[in-house]
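Marked as duplicate of an earlier ticket. Keeping the data here for the record.
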Amino acid sequence: MPGAIHFQQDGSIARVTLEHPGKFNSMSRAMWVSLRGVFESIQRDPQVRCVVLSGAQGHFCSGGDIEEYPAFRFEERALRAFHEEDVWGALHAMLQCDVPMLAQIDGYCMGAGLEVASCCDLRMAAVSARFAAPIARLGFPMAPREVALLSAALGLSATRAMLLAASTFESAQLLASGFLTTVVPDDQLGAQCEAVAQRIASLAPQAARLNKQTLRALNPAVARIDSAQAASILIAAYAYADSAEHREGILAFLAKRKPQF
């Protein structure tokens, strides 16, 4: 079964679910495109007061769908289009959405999952959830805008540890760092997220949207993501597409062997 983004509106609460059976909800290209459309639609709907974003089958999102990567990652133009149009298109739509967003995080929250969670306003996680961005094992860097997004939400220390040492973090660590709003026992995550969503939905919707606009305008880290400096970095950001290291990392993963860097 291919991956999908499921959308359900329950009164004033929108429920967005990432689902990719057998792949811990890894994000395919089609899912990124769909995610963008979902959040652009939510932004236009004045009836929506809160968004709950979750993953299916006990996991939030394990990253990108690596099985797709050989089809486009080894050519610079295609790689740029993937990150700047598909991935950033979706993340940007989330960042520009004025509706309060709550991430309900269990299981794996890695790579693409961390990026999606970073766009949310509140992040609630199960005690057993695990967080990482181990793409160093795959032989390629994180795209510049995505690094800026992650470092703004996670902090530079955790971002460096994830990207440079492939470190995995537990919920308690990211609660202490401020990335997570709340950590709860695994069997209470759904109920507690629902209670918070209902509380948000009961509050003044216009005030919430105006608060999000103000927070976005006053957040210098978010502003830098689309700055001229960021744009200059992007010029050569994808020149590694056809490198031996890039190919080795991805093909070794798919072959289930240790890469030789």
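See parent ticket for discussion. The first helix runs from residue 29 to 44.
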